[in-house]
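[SOLVED] Need 3D model of a two-part complex

Original post:
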Amino acid sequence: MRETPSTSKRRIKIIVAKPALDGHDRGALVLCRAFRDAGMEVIYAGLLTTPEQVAQMAIDEGVDVVALSLLNGAHMTVFPKVLRLLKEKGGEDILVVGGGIIPEGDKAKLERMGITGNFGPGTPLKEAVEHIISRVRKERWATREAARGGRPLSSTKPRQSPGP
Amino acid sequence: MSKSNSSGYWLSKVRELHSSSRPRAQHKYAEAMDEWEAKTLGPWLKHSTERRRSFTTSSNFKLKALYGPSDVEGIDPIKDIGFPGAYPFTRGIYPSMYRGRQWTMRMFSGYGTPKDTNRRLKYLLSKGETGLSIAFDMPTLYGYDADDVRALGEVGRCGVNVSSLDDVERLFSGIPLGRVSTSMTINAPAAVLMAMYLATAKEQEVPFKRLRGTTQTDILKEYIAQKEWAFPPEAHMRLIRDMMVYCTKNVPQWNYISVSGYHIREAGASALQELAFTLADGFSYVDLGLSAGLPVDSFAPRLSFFFNSTMNFLEEVAKFRAARRIWATVLKEKYRAKDPRSLLLRFHTQTSGASLTWQQPLNNIVRTAIEALAATLGGTQSLHTNAYDEAWALPTEGSAEVALRTQQILAEETGIADVVDPMGGSYYLEWLTRELEEGAYIYFDKIDKLGGVIGAIKTGYLQREIADTAYETQKRIEEKQNVIVGVNDFKVEETQPISTLKIDERAQKAQREALADLRKTRDAASVRFSLARFRHSLQDEKDNCMPSLIRAVIARSTLGEIMQVGREVYGSWKEPMVI
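Solution:
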């Protein structure tokens, strides 16, 4: 795809969060570094936050994406709660992606709610990065371009990770 | 083989092998090795290139193709390597090691309600397990009750839920505490769980001096790696001080701190970082005991360690040996310990959960076996082997049994337990042991300059070191410099081939109901009174809070209520930015 000035200069703003009693932050910290190296603006919400705090931070910071990581089995309670709170607080256009130890059956349920990715251990960083870039382009930038009368981008393929 | 005419030759070889008058090589080993490099290795590499440009260990030590006597010059076979059961204990802490008694097979388990876990503990005991090891769920680890809003969705998921003394009594129901040794993986609320265990022993009429076991209690590695704290570091250290003082006097066989590298490694550290940060934590607890006025020999023998064993096999074996040597040396030289037991680094090992793959999970049985082998060749005192399905979920009974069988096969079938430190003397291993030792001393110096472990935690140095290594490792995997079978090579189309343990909402419901019941039936006045006394004790820095804690749990104050008092007195902790 040919870059238009408005898309090539854009940075994805993402918040990485673990809104539960879960200190397993290795994956989240690695992803923060990967997202940063892929050119995104990364906010790490820190540990022991609540879904309320994360949703509020996401809205206050005006992020494109909330990336949730949980390895403690509470994803089916916490992930949907963040999504619901975002909607309630007026952040319904913020994308939510997830990852951690998430059984197959739960993945399908989360996907249906609109929480995508749900990457497990061993996922290449590139796959997570590309998933996010692709969703942002399709669901946030394309629709806004369209709303502003710009060229819709939804049919274009996501470009490769812009990072090194 | 032709008959008879060569028989004289074979037997001359037998005699020659034991002959001291056998002609020796004429020149020095170093020269011989130089010659081998020039004449044999060099030409070989010209037509047969190596698989990689450089070979390194997890700690980034660059490896040569071959190690020999000249690489271990300066390592004294008597002073540095020495003998098992003798200073500096490089080869093991006991003279005959596993020839006397095998390592303790201690399988970490816990899920759901205390009743669920009680059943699993009895199952493992019936299968020949020799020590108990309890895993708690997240609310318990952070010190919240099952009915706290923060516990929603987490009760019983990662371990057993404990909110009150009643739960601990249910957990050990029918298990005589005087006859088992129990390890409890609990840190921020360790003092509270210790109090509950002591109260349960009282109930079973077992005298405290007969209790054997371990509470992990290692809060420093929580700030460094596992990130399960409740209060700021100094507050937790004060509680640990009280446990040390109380147990030294009243529960003499209890290991009240298990200084843990396991979580540091799982968070992404290298073998060297695990070794160095863990021992630095260990020294901090020695300093803590000294600052409480305890003589070093009164408590050092009760400090135990907990290490990870992961896939870089020989580096792991070297790590365990280096750890023993450093601990003995520093306790003797710096802390002037006189009791030989103070110098012994006793340790538990768990195979690495992070090394297990979600892909092709049966391969994890092989990984765990290799890691368990490293731990036993490294001289561990007890071992937990992970189940193959743990990248998916908590283990089922079937997968936990395979994990235990892995240890039994190692112990009984391989012959490795029949000789002490069979790897000792390997040029490469001894060289690597010294490299790790040297690297650890350099880290200790850095940590000291940052104000000790707590100072280094507050600057985020230790956390950043680990996160950076974790990221580098991940990048090496993605660039296929590190191959993980089934993950970035030798892949297959994955279908879910195994059935995993499901934990439903039943545990949460049961625990909430039990708590509601407790809150209704207990004596509210004595709960209030006991919590007030505990608060008062916390506010008096010089007081020991253990007696008031024991009274509080017996009054049926809950874990969450007790920890809430601590949060009100000490406040909470926000970690420095580490990205």
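Edit: Residues 18 and 63 of chain A are 16 Å apart (CA to CA).
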